[in-house]
Amino acid sequence: MSFAAYPLTPDRWDGLVDVFGGGDGKGACGKCWCMWWRVPRQGLGATLGSDVKARFQARVDAGPPPGLLGYDNGVPVGWVQVGPRSDVPEWSAARRLTAPLTREEADDPAVWGVSCFVIRVGHRRKGYASALLEASVSYARRGGARLLDACPVEAKPKASAGSLFHGPAAIFVRAGFEEVARRKANRPLMRMVLKA
Fold first, then answer.
1. CA-CA distance, 15 to 10, in Å (whole number)?
2. In 3D, which of 72, 2, 60, 70 has the Cα closest to residue 34?
3. Dihedral over alpha carbons 97, 188, 65, 137 (to 10 degrees)
4. pTM for this one?
5. Within 13 A of 9's CA, how many CA atoms are on the CB side?
6. Which of 20, 26, 143, 166 is nearest to 91 (CA)?
7. Can you say whether the dihedral through the CA atoms of 9, 86, 172, 152 is positive or negative?
8. Apex CA 170: angle with CA 68 and CA 158, to 5°?
9. Distance between CA atoms of residues 74 and 76, nearest Å
10. Per-residue confidence at 99, pLDDT binned at 50, 70, 90?
11. CB atoms inside a 10 Å sphere around CB 91
12. How far apart are the C-alpha atoms of 125 and 6, rounded to whole Å?
């Protein structure tokens, strides 16, 4: 593969739409358009689909980029949401299994998270999630992160794509992340220290 990942800027929006399944409001995982971790649940449920698509596009337009779009030979093949935990407040909320170790880390601009992956239909199981994770580590370092968290899934063989939007734990282990907490049997909170 000839893979490259770039920050999701407004000029790359159409590529994200392709990865998410087209312009009909599908929005990949449950029609959330990567707003699931950005707004309280009561403000999201009734608006899944085209409304949250517009809200996420507005977030992308406003910047900074909320993640990376991956390409293979110029074709958009995957997306990873990566950035400061404060940009995804529901992912960092207390009592969630994705919550940071301390409350202060949720608001610390140097504590980042890898919260979601989407690999385009027809391009799955080809190593793109690993490539996106590697790009995320580099992006976080360049962005000044000192910690990079994730709460992936310890997946069973042949798990469905819909169950893996947090990423499979195996790719995080291979990348050098270490488990720092476990609040659910198959969902370790994992961390990479980027700066001491």
1. 10
2. 60
3. 160
4. 0.92
5. 4
6. 166
7. negative
8. 95
9. 6
10. very high
11. 22
12. 21
Q: In the 3-class helix/strand/coil scheme, how is the chain assigned residue by residue?
A: CCEEEEECCHHHHHHHHHHCCCCCCCCCHHHCCCCCCCCCHHHCHHHCCHHHHHHHHHHHHHCCCCEEEEEECCEEEEEEEEEEHHHCCCCCCCCCCCCCCCHHHHHCCCEEEEEEEEECCCCCCCCHHHHHHHHHHHHHHHCCCCEEEECCECCCCCCCHHHHCCCEHHHHHHHCCEEEEECCCCCEEEEEECCC
Per-residue pLDDT of 143-184, as tens digits, reads: 999 999 999 999 777 666 667 889 999 999 999 999 999 999
The label of the residue with tokens 């990376």 reads 68
